[in-house]
Amino acid sequence: MQRSAPSDISVIRAASLRGFGPLVRDLGGDPDTLLRRFGLDPRVLHDDDGLIPITAHDLMLDAAGRELGCTDFGLRLSRAQDLSILGPLALAIESSPTVSAALECASRFLFVHSPALRIAVEDDPSGVRGVVAITYRKELQESPYSPQAMELGMGLLFRIATALVGTDIGMRSIDLPHAPMSPIDRYSEVFGTAVRFHTPVAALRMDRHAMDLRFEGSDSAIRGLAIAHLARHHSDPAELVSVRVRRLLAELVGTTGHALHDVARLMDTHPRTLQRALAAEGTTYELVLDDVRRVTALRLITTTDLRLTQIATVVGFSAQSTLSRAVRRWTGQAPRELRATDEIPATMSR
């Protein structure tokens, strides 16, 4: 059973796969085979609180849609889910007094479901007055973009919004960064409003006044207890020094500026202070750098056609032979062997 470290930001709760098994079987597929192919134990389908690598989760959704001939796989899966997949966060959201308060809570604690995902309320990206955007983002430095996973997330966000306050919320559009994968009529059927594609960010655009709509089931006492529980038992991995270093290294690893002193300077601290902070979290700079290289290299080897010499450069290795030795250390396979298999290595993301 997958149980990732709480400090790992590239994970998602297995509840995100609720309904996956029945949907795959209805489409004539074998969910256990798909799960194993992407390094996931089939038992995760029965463990909502289990943490699984978000890269494996997302790539599996894309593969399922492609191989089962179901272009709207993510949208269909969202129909089998509701607010309860968010676990302890669901109670805090549904007991909030208004849409605004619920979104503030979701934005603050969505890391409990997945530290790689973010929800925020922002000004309308199209600049329309009186309109706001509920944006939905994935940390792409940690995991590649997935159209099916994005449609699952946006379909679920829409279902939660309409379940809490109804359909009369002044919906303007659903924005998706990718091209349509299904006929436009299918998107209209699911969302009941205009759907825009190739947008800068995924978003649910609505009239600003909807933020003040009140929930019939609000309860300030329950909300207070739920938020206190979340704050006491869950800490945002993004606040860890090691995670901040990871994110900087994800940007710098292919440049000449990924040495310890470079990262320390960007974080406005002394290298020794940074080393002590990492040690207090049970890691070292060298281990964090190696893990960033591992995640990036294995993703590029298994999901792109880049030449191995190019991948070596991207992850900051001086030669392809250095990359080959590192990949064998990480996976027990040579890069070309890894690329030839249709399985995603379990070490791709932890």
From TrEMBL:
Keywords: DNA-binding, Transcription, Transcription regulation. One of its GO terms (cellular component) is cytosol. SUPFAM superfamilies: Homeodomain-like (SSF46689). GO terms for molecular function: DNA-binding transcription factor activity; transcription cis-regulatory region binding. The keyword Nucleotidyltransferase does not apply. Residues 243-341 form the HTH araC/xylS-type domain. PANTHER family: HTH-TYPE TRANSCRIPTIONAL REGULATOR GADX (PTHR47894). This is AraC family transcriptional regulator. It comes from Janibacter limosus.
